[in-house]
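Section 3.1 - Work completed
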Amino acid sequence: MGFDKAVRRCGRSAPLERVALALGVRNSILVVAPRLRETACRMMPRSLVLVNEVPQRGMAHSLRVALRFIPRNEAVGVLLGDMPAMNDATIARTELLLCDGVDVAFPRNAGGVPGHPVLFAPSTRAKLEALPDGDTLRLARDDPSFVRAEWTCPDASAFLDLDYPAQWEAFANA
């Protein structure tokens, strides 16, 4: 989009600030490019903010940066910083599914399109660490050896990702 969309104001707040509100008091780690560290620390003061020195390696590399700071026996959740419609209810509903042998939990829309957050049980750790560079999280989410739990999210909270100028403008003017 030509700018750092996660930290730019869109209406009253930046998408990253909205994600911080949705996370509430949950423990969180935020991985950002070096130039965004200071701003991200202000926007998500409850989070451990880490730097991905090579952001061109993609989301999987950012996840590996964060995994070094997460105990191996804890679940891992992935939530994008530019999802301004995310809310506590969507996160909580997904968290409820990560139990009883479930390896990965996430929302889908009525058409079957997966959304965020994507939550992984500790049993998935080795595969998360082995993801190839790029935006390859879906390889773990869709791994046929994992037991998945999904739910149908009826609103935009799990799906709205501001990738195009028209989406940005529509959200800012809503």
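Second construct:
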Amino acid sequence: MSTPTLNHLDELPYPEFFQNYSEAIFITDSQQQLIYSNPAFVQMSGANAASIVHEVLASMIEKEENVRVSMRNPQLYNLVVSRTKIQLKNEMLGYVFVLSEVIEESDLKQELDKKTKETTRAKEELEQILYVVSHDLQAPLRSTGSFIQLMEKSIKKGDTQAVGEFMKFVLEGVATMQSLIQDLLEFSRITTKGQPFVETDLNQVLQSAQIHLMKKIEEKGAVITSQQLPKVKGDTAQLTRLFQELLDNALKFVPSDRKPEINISVKERETDYLISLGDNGIGIEEKFYSRIFVIFQRLHQKGDYEGTGIGLAVGKRILERHGGEIWVESEVGKGSVFNFTLNK
């Protein structure tokens, strides 16, 4: 087996994503030859990296589901591991292994159950992102390649007017890919590049979010009202981004003949705050309640509403980092209420 210090990023699609991924991962080809291990894996495993890789691969033969691996070399490692298929740049099949570690032997079952849930979430998220890499990013790439071929033919014919038209489409394709890749990297950095949690006044967070959206608020003639919001421990910049994404969503998805009305309320509960942001927008069908929080999953044509479809996915991930949840209640044609929790 190859040594765990291998760093063949050139064989991976969008390598910067894997470098910044917060969970410990390593990647092999279909023959179980190690291709890459990210910094989080190196930090977790240290000098035991080779043993951990060997034990994980031995435990996951013929298995696709999560497995638990326990080993002592020299300390006890309790790992929850999942495996996800990936298409490498050379069009060969590879596998991404996501590992979560539990070192404490006490309350091991509880900790392992917790880590299993976290690993399952990480695997689902990784599968979503790999789908984006394989599909959403491939579409503009194929389109751009086709227009470049047409440009080449037009140049040979001396048809400069056609070349100019095709160039516009090429530039649009490049801009689309750049936007998707930037959003993808930003999404992956929420946990790896976040700031320490500090006492944060959510009233100030809401005010900052409104300042970012001031032009759109004024253009739409929107009315935003809010109850007095609490102070919580959190990443101030990320919580501002959360409110900004929810407000932007409420401003965007509203009928053209209707002025947006947004109301924010809060309910104090035993261990957390339930915050609700209601709007009078177009609403969402119940069958799409989960889909809207998946990265790049749009419900409408790109020409109808701007954006790449990452906003709510970013908000969900921010809340997960803060130990909170988010869900939606909606009535088509009348509006939606986005509910989320933040710990006291």
